[in-house]
Amino acid sequence: MRFSSPSLCAIALCIAIFGILGVWNTPQSLAEQQTTIFPSPLKAELRWIDVKQNALRFEKKGVQAMAIEDYLTAIDAFQLGIRLNPDSKLSASLYHNLGLSFRAIKDYPRAIRAAQHAMMLHPDFEMYRFHLIRTYEAAGLLPQAQQEFEHLLAENPDNNEVTSLLQLTRERQEDLNRQ
Questions:
Q1: Domain range for residue 96?
Q2: 3-state secondary structure labels for all residues of the chain
Q3: C or N: which end of the chain has fewer Cβ atoms within 10 Å?
């Protein structure tokens, strides 16, 4: 099969147009590859900077959304940040805030999973355990809350706040058992 010169020009023109329009897949940045599977209006916020900086930007956006009680946007932002930086102390903070956002919309199973993941990534940070306990309490899972309080008390036997909160949780559980 022979191609005439005008045909080659037409093919080259089509290739150029398709390339400009982005019809063919082009190599993507790591940030775009990791968020492609998660459609989001915040995806447009990605910039050509390193992945950690993008994760920090999404954490900031999520915190801002939480401040105005826009929890769905906050969840979206935290999930994008986690996809960009999945296994670090930064992502522990993202998981923690994700859990708080899920708890705010009363999606307790997801809130618990997010809080547990935050604790796995940063086990030394007591605030994550406190928020997990609060989530268990909000979900009505008082035995799990009591178990976490006991764990905290074992690590910090002189912590009066933990001791009093554990006692309150035990009393609530006893009240529920009597009903």
A1: 11-101
A2: CCCCHHHHHHHHHHHHHHHHHCCCCCCCCHHHHHHCCCCCHHHHHCCCCCHHHHHHHHHHHHHHHHHCCCHHHHHHHHHHHHHHCCCCHHHHHHHHHHHHHHHHCCCHHHHHHHHHHHHHHCCCCHHHHHHHHHHHHHCCCHHHHHHHHHHHHHHCCCCHHHHHHHHHHHHHHHHHHHC
A3: N
**pLDDT tens digits, residue range 53-73?**
888 889 999 999 999 999 999
Residues 58-69: b if buried by 16+ CB within 10 A, e if exposed: bbebbbebbeee
Q: How many separate domains does the chain show?
A: 1
Tell me if 1 is assigned to some domain: no
Q: What's the start-to-end Cα distance of the chain, in Å?
A: 87
Rounded (10°) angle between helices 108-121 and 89-104: 160
Q: Is residue 2 part of a domain?
A: no
In a domain, 67, yes or no: yes
Q: Is residue 40 one of the residues assigned to a domain?
A: yes
Task: Report if pTM > 0.70.
Answer: no
Tens digits of residue pLDDT in 119-153: 999 888 888 888 998 899 899 898 888 888 777 77
Encoded amino acid at 38, one letter? F
